[in-house]
Each structure stands twice: as C-alpha cells, then as structure tokens.
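Ticket #4471: structure output looks truncated?

Reporter: J.K.
Steps to reproduce: submitted the chain below (222 residues) through the standard prediction queue, then opened the result file.
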Amino acid sequence: MRTTFHSRKRTATIGAALTAVLTLALTACNGDDNASGSTQAGPGASANEAGSTGGADQADQSADTGTGGSDQGADTSTGDDSDGKVDMCRSGVLDATAADGTTDETEGVVTVTFKNFGGSECRISGFPGVDLKTSLGDTFSVDRNGEQAVPQILKEGETAAFHITFPVNNTGGTGVRLTDMVVTPPNEVEPFTLKWPAGTLAVTDGEDGGKMEVSPVGKVSD
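Returned output as attached by the reporter:
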C-alpha cells in the first residue's frame, strides 16, 4: 500500500499545554509503568470520557478545511440530493487504526487510517482532530502542519490516512509516555479512541525538540 499524498517534514511548536505536560514529566515521568498497546476502542467512545479537547479547539481555526469538532460548519449534504453530492464520511461508517511507521532517529511518524465499510461511497476532506493523553493523565491537542487539504471520495473498502509526526526520545531518559489518542475525522463530532502505538516523547523545555504536528487526510491507494 502507498499513500497518494506526501507528508512533508515540517514542524510547528507544540502549544503551552504540551510544554506544561513535559515540565511536569521532569519530576514524574517514572510513574505508571503499564505500557500501552496499539489496540483501538470502538467508534462509540465519548470525547468527554477521553478528555478530548482538540475537536473544539481546532474547529475554530478554519471551518473550510474540515476539522474534527462540533462547531465547524461542515457540509452535511446527502448522497442522493439533486446536486449529486456525496455524503461526508461519518464515524459510523469508518473503521480507524493506528500504526507506528517511525524509521528516522529524530522524527517519529504514526499513521492513522480510516476505512470506509458503510456500503456506499463517502467524502472526506480536511484535518482530523487529534488529542493525546499522557501516562500522567494530561491531555493536549496536536497542531496542523499547514499542508493543503484535498477532498477525497472513498468507495466501500477504500481507505484514507493522516500522519502524526513527533520528536523521537533518544535522550536515554524515560521521556513522556503517551497512552491514548482521541481522533475525530474531518467534519465529524464522534471520535475514535486508539492506543498510542509508538515511543515516548523527549522531555524538553518547549523551545527545542518539543514539536509535533498532524497532516490532512489523504486517500490511500494500492
């Protein structure tokens, strides 16, 4: 499988929320020794139960690019209307999985894939909402990478994906351990809760190395 879009290694400084998380981790990063796997929770997970913040925060950035969240002006046209528009891909017709694709010694990559199993084609476009939870119980949102979002049509069985890039912890310390991801598809409000499948983040002062970002969703082809 290969993606038809290319994720550029561009970075944006994580917000004050992650800086605070990393600072706390300097004194508490040896807590909770239970490693998290790559299994996923079902699509019925609640954003409130998972501590999700990214959907609402990112919705204010730009409704035009289709972020996850509850206040974004999403296109809700139906698949068989007079304009011939295709339904948006809703969480109820998508399956979500996450995998670690890191090959670089300094920048890690996690790929989240959405698969359409709804029986008919649907439309997906924009950036997802992504909130990450740490082993310390903190939650922070991941910023967009600034790439152009391109609308995609997914037939039944087809997939689309996005990438989360993050700084690899190669300091020799325990770093900040991430446990779960709350992922909201573009133009949707119902999130998926997935296990973080990759390694820890380096503990930094937020000025150097503390960078993380998410790409727009792109269609995956054979």
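Triage note (M.O.): checked the attachment and the full token line is present. Residues 1-83 have pLDDT under 50 and may be disordered.
Status: closed, working as intended.
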